[in-house]
């Protein structure tokens, strides 16, 4: 059964494994970030967010190919941003994304420093 949850210490190894599959460099201490993982019978996707001041920076977000194009990436994004919004964070940003089209399709706007979204506006859609 599909679910999205906060990643446990044990789940961090799956996040690293999925990131490695996509050759994503997670250049942060995962223990100091908000990590959520999508699982079915096994973990298949994750999102990692680092909060700095009043912005949630998405520093890792991936879904294994066999689970793509089914809405799981969008669900991970919205669940994670809903959680940071509950803590008063109003903006989210993605820098150096290889998937700009995905984020633009999810209402992020281009700027000189990456892609940004007003979380409240995103959650209304």
Automatic annotation (TrEMBL):
Matches recorded under PROSITE patterns: GNAT (PS51186)
Entry keyword Transmembrane: no
Gene3D superfamilies: 3.40.630.30
Classification via InterPro entries: Acyl_CoA_acyltransferase, GNAT_dom
Keyword terms of this UniProt record: Transferase
GO terms, molecular function: acyltransferase activity, transferring groups other than amino-acyl groups
SUPFAM superfamilies: Acyl-CoA N-acyltransferases (Nat)
CDD domains in the cross-refs: NAT_SF
Origin: domain of life: Bacteria
All copies of domain N-acetyltransferase, residue ranges: 2-125
Protein name stated in the entry: GCN5-related N-acetyltransferase
